[in-house]
Structure formats: C-alpha cells, structure tokens
Amino acid sequence: MESYITMLIIVCPLVFLAGFVDAVAGGGGLISLPAYIFAGVPIHVAYGTNKFANSIGTAVAASKFFKSGNIKLKPAILSAIGAIIGSWFGAKLVLILDEKYLHYCLMIILPIVSVFLLFNRSFGSLEEEKEIKRKDMYFMSLIIGFIIGGYDGFFGPGTGTFLVLAFTSLLGFNLITASGNAKVVNLASNIGALIAYILGSKVSFAIGIPAAVCSIAGNYIGAHLAVKNGAKFIKPIILLVVGMLFIKVILGFFDL
Which sequence ranges are marked TM in the entry (predicted)? Predict the structure, then answer.
C-alpha cells in the first residue's frame, strides 16, 4: 500500500503538469512517461497507462477548444486520418531504419525551430488567418497528419508540438486554432495506441484512473489559459517543449 501511495505521489503532480503543457503546446509525454518509469511502473505498463490517462485528458482539452470555436473540424479529421495511416508506416519503418538517423535530423531541425520562434515575434499571433483554398487546406491537412503521424509511429516525443507548428506555418492557423486541431489528431492516435495496450493487458487502471483525473485537470486549465491568452501564452511553452525534446534527443543519441 505504501509503495502504491508513493507511486501516486510521484505520478499525479507530474501528469497534471504534463496535461497542462500538452493542452497548450503538445509534448506533455516528455514529462508524463518518465514520471511512470521513475515511480517504478514496468516500462510497457508505463506506456499503456500513460496512453490511458493522456487519452482522457486530451479528450477534455479537445472539447474545450471545440466549444470555444477554435477547431477547424474537417482539417482536423483529415489530419487524424492521415496520422493513423502515417503512424502505421512509421512503426513499420522502425524495423528497417536505425533510429539514430532521426536523431541526426532532429539535432539540426530543433535549434532552427527555436531560433525561428525566438526571432519571428508575430508567428501564430495574428487573429486573422491566411486565406487558403479549401481543397488545398484539406490536402495539406491530410499530408501534415500523414508525415507527423509517421514521425509519431517511428519516434513519438513532441508530436503535438510539431502538429501545432505545421498547422501554423503551413496552413496559416493562429496558435490557438493550431493547438485545438492538434488535440483532435493526438486524440485519434492516442486512442488507436490505447486499444492495443488494453488488449495486451498493459494498462494499470489502479494508477491510470487517479492519473487520468490529474490529466483532466491539467488539460482543462491549460486549454482554458491557451484560449484566453492566445499566442503570448502558447509560444513560450512551445519553446520550452522544443528545448526539452532537444535535450531528450541529445541524451538518447549518446545513450545517456
């Protein structure tokens, strides 16, 4: 009983923080997954339990963005379809390619993204979005979902952040709408993975249910503040997540 309570003391606050970050800018898994492992949850169960709590928390965040009118539903659904297909291909790619090739790419891409965000102050902050033809928007949404879904299946961390950046830079969404659309795509990919983990008996509901409550709270507060404060609130957290991902990539590359 003591070890169970200790696990919850470690996991719950970090899952709350992860939900908050994830709702705003994506990348919450960089915080929540290590929390389960640090608490002593076996790694495969940690992955499954993390997906369980994240799926519920992400659904709450997506609902909050949707109610506030900050989701473009058709592009979001098309991106979700693309992500499901892309993640399957990404998972297959793991079998034939060394993950370190992706580490090389990320070590170049992430600092460029950081510099771009730091020096482009107007990025994603415009209230009026770019006018893009519907057919082009739908096609690009599908491609964004497919490519970043492939990344998610191959590697994973920071998927939500890359979705936000893609929706903003390629489709001209403001950061609030981009974050809302990213939630729908994340929810689709989380549910797909969660089904597999439940069927494989890799979810600890004793830990997952309290963690899900904390994830709901974090996601709700994060989504509320993102909708209320817009780009000035979202952008610094994107930078934080990009920085965390860069550190993870470096440590992973050197097997630290």
Answer: 33-53, 73-95, 101-119, 139-156, 162-182, 194-221, 233-254
Q: Are 140 and 170 in contact (CB under 8 A)?
A: yes
Answer yes or no: is pLDDT of 1 > 70: no
What pTM did the predictor assign? 0.84
- Residue 54: Cβ within 10 Å count: 28
How far is the C-alpha of 5 from the C-alpha of 3, rounded, in Å? 5
**CA distance linking residue 37 with residue 207, whole number of Å:** 12
| Rounded-to-integer distance, Cα 124 and Cα 168, Å | 6
Contact 30, 249 (CB under 8 A): no
Q: What is the pLDDT of residues 135-153, one digit of tens each?
A: 999 999 999 999 998 888 7
- What tokens appear for 129 in the block? 């979005």
Cα–Cα dist 154/83, whole Å: 12
In degrees to the nearest 10, what's the CA dihedral of 80, 166, 157, 208?
A: -40
